[in-house]
Amino acid sequence: MWKTRGRRNKRIVKFFRIGLSHNSLANYYTLNFALMQHHKYSLTELENMIPFERDLYVQMLMDFIKQETEKNNGRSQ
């Protein structure tokens, strides 16, 4: 029983290491800070997100900001 559980835990850790390999530690903290300061996320919310969930929210936020910028540029012209 314990051997199976240990192997499963190692696979889970390996999965998340691979999943987070695109993000450096400095980038992780910089992004957390920006999300907390500018978009009012709490650190608890950010820490409790699954890595791919966090990436999805960041991508959706970037798309939203891009759309708003394009909309504002269209008004000013």
Describe what you observe in this structure.
The protein is mostly helical. The chain is 83% helix and 0% strand. The chain has helices spanning 2-19, 25-39, 43-47, 51-76.
Task: Considering the chains and any ligands shown, give keywords for the structure.
77 residues; mainly alpha; 83% helix
Helix-strand layout with pairing:
Layout lengths: L1 H18 L5 H15 L3 H5 L3 H26 L1
Q: What class, by secondary structure content?
A: mainly alpha
Q: Work out the count of structural domains.
A: 1
- What is the 3D form? elongated
Please, how many helices? 4
Largest sheet: none
Content of β-strand: under 5%
Report the count of strand segments.
0
Give me the strand/helix succession.
HHHH
Using only C-alpha atoms, the radius of gyration works out to: 18 Å
How far the N terminus sits from the C terminus, by CA atoms, comes to 68 Å
Mean pLDDT: 81
Give the structure's gist in a few sentences.
With 77 residues, this protein is mostly helical. The protein has one domain. It has four helices and no strands.
